[in-house]
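Propose amino acids for all 208 sites.
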């Protein structure tokens, strides 16, 4: 690991400080200065067992998330995954699968990746559970940003599908930003109708 870090030095994703001997993607100072949520939030009570947004969607988080999604600044993905993994001690202990919010195949093809998938893998590894497969976004919905709550709900009706009955009992949904909670709610309903007993959610930031 030391040789690899020497040849390809690791820098903080936010300030660029060089940290050759540190496996972290965010330096200690930037990590502490992020706009942390003091308490967990529950955007859809009664549907989600637990819903946690780690950060407020404000500078520098908002700029970094947009850069990740729309400008392929993929170095932000492992940095934000570190933020998500900081929630692990506070998550329910019976989570047995992690699910990144699916992208429609057309949007994934244009973007080249699903940012939620990039965030979910390190979380699944840290929890020692698998990523759930076979859940798709079958409806090409427009971007949710700027829409009112009822418009978001209308967009997401029948947007997700599960290919076969789920064997996992408590699924943790991973996404980058939660605003109204509509996406998490609709996806959770589909999972609960298809075999999951409980669904929780973990997001990088809340835009509310």
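Proposal:
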């Amino acid at each position: 690991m030391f040789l690899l870090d020497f040849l390809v030095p690791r820098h903080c994703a936010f300030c660029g400080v060089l940290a050759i001997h540190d496996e972290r993607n965010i330096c200690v100072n930037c990590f502490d200065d992020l706009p942390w949520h003091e308490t967990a939030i529950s955007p859809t009570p009664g549907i989600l067992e637990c819903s946690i947004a780690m950060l407020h969607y404000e500078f520098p988080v908002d700029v970094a998330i947009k850069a990740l999604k729309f400008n392929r600044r993929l170095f932000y993905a492992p940095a934000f995954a570190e933020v998500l993994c900081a929630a692990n001690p506070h998550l329910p202990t019976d989570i047995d699968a992690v699910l990144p919010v699916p992208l429609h195949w057309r949007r994934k093809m244009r973007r080249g990746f699903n940012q939620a998938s990039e965030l979910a893998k390190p979380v699944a590894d840290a929890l020692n559970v698998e990523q759930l497969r076979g859940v798709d976004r079958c409806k090409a919905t427009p971007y949710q940003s700027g829409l009112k709550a009822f418009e978001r709900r209308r967009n997401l009706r029948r947007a997700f599908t599960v290919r076969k009955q789920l064997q996992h009992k408590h699924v943790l949904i991973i996404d980058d930003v939660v605003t109204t909670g509509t996406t998490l709610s609709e996806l959770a309903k589909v999972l609960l109708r298809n075999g999951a007993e409980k669904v929780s959610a973990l997001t990088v930031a809340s835009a509310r």
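DSSP finds eight helices and seven strands in the chain. The beta strands are 51-56, 97-100, 130-131, 135-137, 160-162, 170-178, 198-206.
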